């Protein structure tokens, strides 16, 4: 056992003082005890929180951040943004994908994400043909995660149709083309490459109802069940009004309604965005046990809409946060936006609070950490015995944390607009960030710059 001591730490029941934290040789938390002695323990540099999961990532889109903010049509929206994404992805090579992902994952760690779910759909060569190893692009993200030190859940995506009703893929979508069988083969390749690494998990990601055939979707889930009945399943759903209208025209049902009626959606599922649900869908999704994958910065950037979080939480729904297109790489910023969009919609303050505490920052961090852990299929998200030893340690000397204790620490982290508060980051019992520094940061940034320069040349 290695033992650390925190003057203050955010435990599952709330903030506690004088916390003794044991970590075993396998990288899991052992005994966690508040009101304890510091004798024989290494003192952490500041307040400690559980590591946060980024439950939705398209890593390559990090290189697009800031490049789509010029109006191309009076009706600029998600669909016009997608046209620009097609142009960008057409030139992406495996080496560039790895360079972008490595830089991104380092950025995530520096801000307090300790794990990521990579929802990966750029599978093929630019000419649409599979690489010699069809899992080439997926495995580049595994390499990026291992190089950076972040834990990862690899989610190869099924993408076989261009819209509801089985419409064929467009030429510019051929890089995404997969079948249920090819996705399951990639999954097996990834599981083999992971070699039982406890910080690598695998699952699948049917891209969206518009991009998969219903028969193939069920075939994919059945195939995954044969491998691992608990493995995560992630899907984009009900992100845009047009998507809802097209789904109703195709099936007579709204997207979340169709999904819940046709598949056994449970705690292994993560339904991403779902900003276009009605009240009945909101209640039903909460009751299913699935995690709502919320990406507030991307949902705002793309004009997706506002998730009905208050109604969803009242119904017992679980949620987590993700970076998606990575216009933000900071979990505190995602959580702040999540609360603020609810305030704008409701015209009231301090809305996301729970039974444990009436503090917004503490509530958001605990709930999102728990939901993110479920979505990644990884025992993380809490400083508690048996969980993966992920810690985010804040700078004790940060001006924005001056004279703060307990709930005021998390509230300042999430809602004060402060940046640079993360000092040390532990992933699976290993320090990957120390004193705000990551050993790969400069080299990863250099390789990222070169990759973007080639893509934009």
Description:
By secondary structure, the chain is of the alpha/beta class. It has two domains: 2-49 and 394-441, Urease, subunit C, domain 1, CATH 2.30.40.10; 51-376, TIM Barrel, CATH 3.20.20.140. The chain has helices at 78-89, 94-111, 136-148, 180-194, 214-227, 241-251, 255-262, 279-288, 296-301, 309-314, 331-346, 360-376, 407-415, 441-456; strands spanning 2-11, 14-23, 29-33, 42-43, 48-50, 52-57, 113-120, 151-158, 200-202, 205-206, 233-237, 269-273, 291-294, 318-321, 391-394, 422-427, 430-433. Strands 6, 7, 8, 9 and 10 form a five-stranded parallel β-sheet that branches. Strands 3-2-1-4 form a four-stranded mixed β-sheet, with no helix packed on it. A four-stranded antiparallel β-sheet has the order 5-15-16-17, with helices on one face. Helix 4 links the parallel strand 8 and strand 9 (200-202). Helix 2 packs parallel to helix 3 (136-148), helix 2 crosses helix 14 (441-456) and helix 4 runs parallel beside helix 5 (214-227). The longest helix is centred in the N-terminal third of the chain and has 18 residues, at 94-111.
The averaged pLDDT comes out at: 97
The first-to-last residue Cα distance is 52 Å
Shape: globular
| Helicity level | 25-40%
Q: What is the alpha-carbon Rg in Å?
A: 21 Å
Provide the β-strand percentage band. 15-25%
* Count of individual helical segments: 14
Would you count the extended β strands for me?
Answer: 17
CATH superfamily of the largest domain: Metal-dependent hydrolases
CATH class of the largest domain: Alpha Beta
CATH architecture of the largest domain: Alpha-Beta Barrel
